[in-house]
Amino acid sequence: xxYILDVMxxxxxxxxxxxxxxxxxxxxxxxxxxxxRIVKDKALAVYHVLFHLTFFETGKSEIIVPWxxxxxxxxxxxxxxxxxxxxxxxxxxxxxxxxxxxxxxQRGSANEIVVHLPSExxxxxxxxxxxxxxxxxxxxxxxxxYYTDPERRLMVLERDRxxxxxxxxxxxxxxxxxxxxxxxSKGGTNKKFNLVTSCQGCNQRKQDEDAIKFLSTNxxxxxxSQKEYLKQKDYIxxxxxxxx
Length: 244
Description:
single chain, Arc Repressor Mutant, subunit A, DNA Binding (I), subunit A, 2 domains, two-stranded antiparallel ribbon
């Protein structure tokens, strides 16, 4: 049985070293929503197969597979199965150029491939961030409690791309913290725009400190670059604006 199906059906527990069900759903939507605007149709079909064989089947990004097997999942315009290496290889140019996949090495007739998630592909990532920025500036006020509601907490986590807002380290569902931009002790609320994803370390060190001031502390400690600091500063300021 495929890893994602087993997780969905409750047959196995999610593993920390594999893609989560929530992330798989989001990333899968990015394939058709954003990656399809970057990669040509024939190359996109190959990526779809690799995405399925890796993240859906095993929950991981690595796979050892012959190109002919990849092609066996695809039909040509004439309806024939593409079951030879050469035909599949002709479709890989876009995938290599856009850094969708990486071939570590060849093992005889097989290839050791790393498949990048859509959110990791530079051109696709730009489209995702552009869409998120647009949604952030046009979203209607939301008075719901995003701090205590489990499903809404995950929405904040996904909005922040599963990274700590203050140091940009990747965080997992079992370890992330939601931090109040304006602390509750200073009148902050549990609304969506007053919450950001944080790692436990940053949350403990920040305490009731101003969010942007704490971000600058991380920059001075070289936890983030100047470019990252300016980008995250704009992001936090944008959230603060949405609170009014």
